[in-house]
Amino acid sequence: MKKQAPNYIPAILLIVAVVVTTAICGFYALRPQPEVIQGQTEVTEYRVSSKVPGRVKRILVEEGQRVKAGDVLAILEAPEVNAKLTQAVAAEDAAAAQSRKSRQGRTRRAKTRRLRDVAEGQSGSRNDGKELCTRETPL
User: Fold this and answer.
1) Are 72 and 60 in contact (CB under 8 A)?
2) For 13-63, what is each residue's pLDDT tens digit?
3) Which residues pair with 55 in a beta bridge?
4) Which residues pair with 58 in a beta bridge?
5) What is the CA radius of gyration of the chain?
6) Distance from chain centroid for Cα 64
7) Contact, 99 vs 114, CB < 8 A?
8) Of 4, 5, 52, 103, which is most buried with the most CB atoms under 10 A?
């Protein structure tokens, strides 16, 4: 009888399959898992800041209450901001009064000029009416 030569190909394929399977299982088993931390914490002091200086007028949350990002926790009172707002409103009112005064002054000057022209007898000509009209239009 003839001895058969050993066939190494199936053994090599079996070893490669075991190595690949072990690598895939190791990859999934050893990959980092997200850390989940559960529990509660106590905070005795927490620092908050704002863009505008002021004093806390009212606190809108209670101790232990759950809050989300963007929730209003407190209302600030800023006297400097209120004073600047009052100052701006006063400046606006003053500008409106100055504008009204200017408009009224122009109207009075035009009426006075017309009355003076009539009194002097210059408004009798055709040309004076045209001049008066062109003088009043830009006003």
Assistant:
1) yes
2) 999 999 999 999 988 888 887 877 777 777 777 777 778 888 888 999 888
3) 77
4) 75
5) 46
6) 30
7) no
8) 103
